[in-house]
Sequence to fold (139 residues):
Amino acid sequence: MGATLTMAIGTTRDELERISSAIEELGQRDEWPDDLVFRVNLVLEELILNIMDYGAEDDDPDISLEIQSKDDSISIDLSDRGRAFDPLTEAPEPDLTASVGERRVGGLGVHLTKTLMDEVHYSREADRNRLSIVTRKVR
Fold:
């Protein structure tokens, strides 16, 4: 078992469908459980939307995605050329006790990432934001 997915991602919302399809294909090819495909898709959709909406200093944040599927885990490397931003320390904490109508915008995607993945690390390398994420295939 083991497979790799590498993608350059544009800044339009229709890219999310392309990413989701590629993840589903990778998961099927590498025999991921359905809940793993769901978790990876959800986390990446949230993170990539944040980059598209807030991270770009110009029209092209140059988003790159690499997923490596190993025997018992998946490693995800998501990077962009947007302004320096560590979502693990700089994103607001969501108020999970407030009703949906009262909640302020922001922080939920990062919260989901921290909750649904096993390891999440941020670094700034060569003018790029880099999130390194690891999740076990079976939780």
Summary: The first strand starts at residue 3 and ends at 9. Strands lie at 3-9, 63-69, 73-80, 119-125, 128-136. The mean pLDDT is 88.
